[in-house]
Design a protein that fits this description.
This protein is an alpha/beta fold. The protein is 44% helix and 22% strand.
Length: 300
C-alpha cells in the first residue's frame, strides 16, 4: 500500500497554491531547501514524480495533481476529526480566528463578538483585518478559521478546500453632497447622475463595482477623483467634489452627506463567510458563524 505523509502533502498543496518553492517556504516558515527535500521524500514514498523543471521554476506533474485531488478529501476528513475531538474535549470553549475585510469588522464582526461574550463567554474570538486574497491564504494555511469577504473576490463554490455561506446582501446606495439638486428628490436612479463627477478608486474591486453598476444603468461614470478609503471618499462628497456609490454597511455610518437608496437599479454586493471544509461542525466555529448570521439578519 502507498505510504501517505500528511505533513508532506500539506507542503505539496501549499506549493500548488503559492507557485514557487521560495513562496512556499515563506508561507510555511521553512527554508527552500527543506521544502525541496520534503517533496523529494514524498515523491519517493509515493513512487511517482511530483515536480518537473520549468526554466528556473518548477511545475506540478499530472501525478501531483492527482495526489492533491485525493489529499483534499483527506484534509477535509481530518478537519472533521479535529472538530469532533474539540467538541469532546472542550465542549463550548475554544478559540476562533477571523480574517475580515475592513468594512465588515465594525458592522458584522464586532457586534457578533459582543453578542458571543454574553451567550458563549468561553469562546474567544481573535480578529484580523485582511484583504480577500490574504484571508484565503491564511484560511488555507490554518492562520485563520473563518474568512469574510465579498463573494466576487472569493474562491468558487467548487473549491474543495472551503465551505461558503452567504451572510448578507449589501445594497449599494449613492452618496451626494448635502446641497446636491437631487439630494431631496422623491426618487433617484443612477442614470440621473450620469452627468455628475464621480469618486472611486483608480483600480481594484470598488472601481470595478462602480463602473459595472453605472454601465448597467446605461452610462460610463466620469471619474473626477480617485480614492480607495471611505473616509477620503465621503469627505470629498461632503465637500461637493462629486458623488459616489457606497455600500449600505458604510452608508449607515456616513455623516455630512446625503445618502439615497437606488430601488430601481438595485445594485448589490454579497458578503460571504468561508471555512475550511469539514471545520464547520467545530462548536466554537459554529457559534461564531451563528452570531455573524444573526447580526447580518438584523441589518435593515
Amino acid at each position: 500500500m502507498t505510504e501517505w505523509d500528511i505533513k508532506k502533502l500539506r507542503i505539496l498543496r501549499t506549493l500548488a497554491e503559492q507557485g514557487t518553492v521560495t513562496a512556499t517556504a515563506e508561507a510555511l516558515h521553512m527554508t527552500p531547501s527543506a521544502v525541496s527535500q520534503q517533496l523529494t521524500n514524498l515523491a519517493r514514498l509515493l513512487g511517482v514524480p511530483l515536480l518537473e523543471a520549468q526554466g528556473r521554476r518548477v511545475r506540478l506533474t499530472d501525478a501531483a495533481h492527482l495526489v492533491l485531488r485525493h489529499a483534499e478529501a483527506v484534509f477535509a476528513q481530518l478537519e472533521r476529526a479535529d472538530a469532533e475531538l474539540a467538541a469532546y474535549l472542550t465542549g463550548e470553549a475554544g478559540e476562533v480566528r477571523i480574517g475580515a475585510f475592513s468594512t465588515a469588522v465594525p458592522v458584522l464582526v464586532v457586534p457578533a463578538v459582543a453578542a458571543l461574550r454574553l451567550s458563549h463567554p468561553a469562546v474567544e474570538v481573535r480578529v484580523r483585518e485582511t484583504e480577500a486574497a490574504e484571508s484565503y491564504e491564511l484560511l488555507s494555511a490554518g492562520g485563520v478559521d473563518l474568512a469574510l469577504s465579498l463573494a466576487a473576490h472569493a474562491p468558487t463554490a467548487r473549491d474543495p478546500r472551503f465551505t461558503r455561506t452567504t451572510l448578507l446582501e449589501d445594497p449599494l446606495d449613492v452618496a451626494l453632497p448635502p446641497d446636491h439638486p437631487l439630494a431631496g428628490a422623491a426618487e433617484l436612479r443612477l442614470v440621473d447622475l450620469s452627468g455628475d463627477p464621480w469618486i472611486y478608486g483608480g483600480s481594484g474591486p470598488w472601481s470595478e463595482i462602480t463602473r459595472t453598476a453605472c454601465e448597467a444603468a446605461g452610462f460610463v461614470p466620469e471619474q473626477a477623483h480617485s480614492a480607495s478609503g471611505w473616509t477620503a471618499i465621503l469627505a470629498m462628497v461632503e465637500a461637493g467634489m462629486g458623488v459616489a456609490l457606497v455600500p449600505r454597511m458604510v452608508a449607515s455610518r456616513a455623516a455630512g452627506v446625503a445618502v439615497r437608496g437606488l430601488p430601481h437599479d438595485r445594485p448589490t454586493r454579497h458578503v460571504i463567510a468561508a471555512l475550511r471544509r469539514g471545520s464547520e461542525s467545530a462548536p466554537a466555529v459554529a457559534h461564531v458563524l451563528a452570531a455573524l448570521r444573526s447580526v447580518a439578519a438584523a441589518r435593515p
